[in-house]
Amino acid sequence: MEPIEINQLQEYIDSFANKEVYVHLETTNGAYASHFNQDAYNVGAFIRNAKVTYQRGKVVGAGATYRVGLKLDIGWIYAEGVNQFEVDMQKRLLMAGHDREGRLMVALQISESPFQY
Amino acid sequence: MSEHVVVIYPHPDDEAFGASGTITTFREKGVPVTYLCGTLGEMGRNMGNPTFATRETLPEIRKNELIKACEVLDINLEMLGYRDKTLEFESTEEVAEHLFSYLDKIKPSLVITHYPGHAVHPDHDAFGAAAIKAVEKFSENERPTVWAQAISRNHLEELGEPDIQNDVSEVFTKKFETIQAHQSQADGMLSKVRNEADDIVEATKQWLGVESFYTWKF
Predict the structure, then answer these.
(1) Which of A77, A78, B38, B100 is 20–30 Å from A95 (CA)?
(2) B5-215 is classed CATH 3.40.50.620
(3) At what angle do helices B14-28 and B172-181 cross, to 10 degrees?
(4) Is the pTM of this model over 0.80?
């Protein structure tokens, strides 16, 4: 993955608009968060292969982290804290936010075919 | 009954951090060991440091790391095909049946797994519970011994001292090699140690030099 280049990412997001796409969205602070820090809570959310169509997608932010929002006919999807992206060999748009140790904190991925479950 | 050890953990690298010293000791005595690995750690947060994996490439990377680790340990590997972080939402009975289908063929003398309720990660707790349920399916005279591993903060208070405490410092080189086979995960896990110590092997030995288990009472 590469650091986000906002204009290029916006073009990729646009290329999936108004199509039926599969979305992977997750955020997590890990299953050991409260094990290593008793004041912490384990939180996370995960959805894989949500089948949606978005009319508009937009990346906003600067520097270290970005937010990406997708406007659906009857709802929204967004991810906050993404800082890297790539289009993989299967033409899927992968976006993720990693901490300083390279651990994934948030991911938003868009594909025209279902992600392997 | 001939000796055969079956290790039942959900993630590639659980065997490395948790039991690779004990496994090595069994292998040195010529005892066969089979690892029933539940998932491919698809939801791991560590992507290498610097990152070289993505959410989509991680399963294949970890699968290859797992195969390599099992070659280092010279053990049989069965990958059970569950998905990381979802084991607790599966039917315990179905998972237990699945595990029993392997155990019934292998007829192990010893099963190593996580101590349900004291294993911190939901997959550890769920897979440990299913493993114990699977072993319960054996009649009493055929039932293997179970060593259950507890890693919760309060396990000593609640369960007392573990009756099995394997000092694995003699075989620690092998344990370290096994951990390092899981490169995508070792980078992150060992980075804390690396920041604080000059000799990472010695520091890791301090941290992981003893493998403790509770003999399960059926």
Answers:
(1) B38
(2) no
(3) 140
(4) yes
